[in-house]
Design brief:
34% of the residues lie in helices and 18% in strands. It is built from 10 helices and 16 strands. The two termini are 31 Å apart.
Length: 344
Amino acid sequence: MRVLVTGGAGFIGSRIAAALLEDGCDVRILDVIAPACADARAEVITGDVSDPAVAGAAIEGVDAVCHQAAKVGLGVDFGDAPAYVAANDTGTVVLLSSLWQRGFTGRLVLASSMVVYGEGRSRCPDHGLVRPGPRRAEDLQAARFDPRCPTPGCPRRLRWSPVDEDTAVDPRNVYAATKLHQEHLCAVWAREAGATAVALRYHNVYGPGMPRNTPYAGVASIFRSALEGGHPPAVFEDGGQTRDFVHVDDVARANVLALTGRRVASGAYNIASGRPRTILDMAVALSAGFGPDVPAPVVTGAWRLGDVRHIVASPVRAADGLGFEASIGFEEGMAELAASPLGA
């Protein structure tokens, strides 16, 4: 089986390529950056998936496509929209157009994200499951970080409830909107082509080789970079934001299962550990991994309006449909991240 991995030089894509090779697949990597230490068994094409000539050449002779190439992170503000749309939407539609022109009817696995759910869903003690409304700047300024029940007149604070793949989507930033649009484009292509399109909605992916501190980096790498520089992790809000942290090697294994499994249905699958933790939990675990002499995390109260408070996944569909369950525990994974170098 020959698999094209777009973005195969990146943090997640490179681990997927390695896992596919170990599984006995032939792997072709397409990335704008030539892999610094690509496995000699992999074929490498350096180029941009949004270039029709490059995409057309990359898909020749492949049996499946793993589409990881994307601009990631929440961005800074709406001024980032053109760059996100160009990288994510345009890159995806050029790839799909190339597959369509070739008459490809194999399997496409897309790297999607939990950000498509927005604030997810929550439970009110009085009104049951409800959909939190957009967070308000005045609440955040007053340190009222947990969303309140949207039912008129109800002052209750909401508690998170796991989101399954049928939860209504609610993208709340440009990156989230482009990830959802990628899913929609892939679904339309698959339906018309008679192919299979699988969207893996990654939750908070972490692990060795994460990109360093940039405005677009994940919070784990930002905390890790701070500790490496001798500074305490700066935890936004009160640190009570709840997430599902999943190790990059588990994510790579989920992709292999989605690409090679005998009976994998089109649709979305949460890729998560099923064991939620808070942002403060992560900061404490990373600090502990650096040893007793590092500065303790500092809870700053700072906030960003586009951030969500709680987003926790149900891992049931991935277990049933892909045979995927995360195997790397939180403490083990964070200790490894603390001891391992970050990427560029």
